[in-house]
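Work Package 4 report. The design task specified in the project plan requires that, given a folded chain encoded as C-alpha cells, an amino acid be chosen for each position. We show below one input record used in the internal validation round.
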C-alpha cells in the first residue's frame, strides 16, 4: 500500500470528509467486485457497497492498523454479503453476466474473442452454482488475490478451512466444467 493511501486512510479516520470521499472512490470497485462475486446481482452489490461504506464511516475511528484497511473492508463487505444471502430466499439466477468476464486482450480476431468470452461465461456460470462458502473463498483467492491468511481473517475461519474450501471449490468446478474428467 502506498504512503499516499495510508495518509488518506489516516486523515479519513481522523474525520476528513474529503479524504473519506477519496477512500470511497479508490476502494469502491474493490468492494463491488467482492459483493458482485458473492451476491451475483449487480443491484444488490451496488446497494451493499453503499451499506459497507456507511459501516466503514461509523467504524473507521476504531481501525487500529491502517495498513490492513483493504482486508478490513473486504471483511465488512463479505460479512454483509453473507448476512444478505441468509435473508434472501434461494433462487436460480437467470441474470446474464453481461460485462462480468474480463476480455481486455483487444484481439483483432473476432472468433477468438467470441470463444474467449463464451468460455469465460461458462466458467462464471459454474462459479455461481458453487455453495456460498466455496464461492466466497474462491472469489477472494482467485479474483481478489487475497492470501490464505487474509481469507481466514476476513471469513473468521482457520487457514486450513480456507485451503479445504478452495480444494472443494476447484474440485466442484472441474466436475461442472468437464463431467467426464475424473477428479
Amino acid at each position: 500500500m502506498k504512503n499516499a493511501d495510508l495518509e488518506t486512510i489516516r486523515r479519513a479516520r481522523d474525520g476528513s470528509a474529503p479524504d473519506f470521499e477519496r477512500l470511497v472512490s479508490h476502494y469502491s470497485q474493490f468492494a463491488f467486485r467482492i459483493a458482485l462475486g458473492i451476491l451475483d446481482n449487480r443491484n444488490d452489490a451496488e446497494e451493499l457497497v453503499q451499506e459497507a461504506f456507511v459501516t466503514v464511516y461509523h467504524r473507521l475511528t476504531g481501525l487500529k492498523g491502517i495498513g490492513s484497511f483493504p482486508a478490513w473492508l473486504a471483511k465488512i463487505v463479505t460479512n454483509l454479503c453473507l448476512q444478505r444471502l441468509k435473508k434472501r430466499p434461494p433462487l436460480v439466477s437467470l441474470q446474464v453476466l453481461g460485462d462480468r468476464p474480463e476480455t481486455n486482450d483487444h484481439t483483432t480476431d473476432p472468433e477468438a474473442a467470441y470463444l474467449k468470452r463464451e468460455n469465460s461465461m461458462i466458467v462464471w456460470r459454474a462459479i455461481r452454482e458453487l455453495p456460498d462458502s466455496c464461492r466466497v473463498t474462491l472469489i477472494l483467492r482467485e479474483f481478489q488475490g487475497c492470501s490464505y491468511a487474509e481469507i481466514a481473517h476476513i471469513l473468521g475461519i482457520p487457514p486450513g478451512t480456507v485451503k479445504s474450501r478452495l480444494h472443494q471449490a476447484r474440485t466442484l468446478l472441474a466436475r461442472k466444467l468437464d463431467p467426464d474428467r475424473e477428479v
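The two ends are 39 Å apart (CA to CA). Validation will be extended to a larger panel in the next phase.
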